Amino acid sequence: MPNSSQTSPPRRATLGKRSADIASMFDGVAAGYDLTNTVMTAGMDKGWRRAVVETVDPQPGQVVLDLAAGTGVSSVELAASGATVVPCDLSVGMLTVGRQRHPQLGFTAGDAMRLPFGDKTFDAVTILFGLRNIADTVGALREIRRVTKPRGRLVIAEFSTPKPWLVRTAYHKVVLPMLPQIARLAASNGVAYDYLAESIKAWPDQLRLAELMIEAGWNVVEWQNLSRGIVALHRARA
Ligand SMILES: C[S@@+](CC[C@H](N)C(=O)[O-])C[C@H]1O[C@@H](n2cnc3c(N)ncnc32)[C@H](O)[C@@H]1O
Question: Does the predicted TM-score (pTM) go above 0.90?
Answer without folding.
Answer: yes
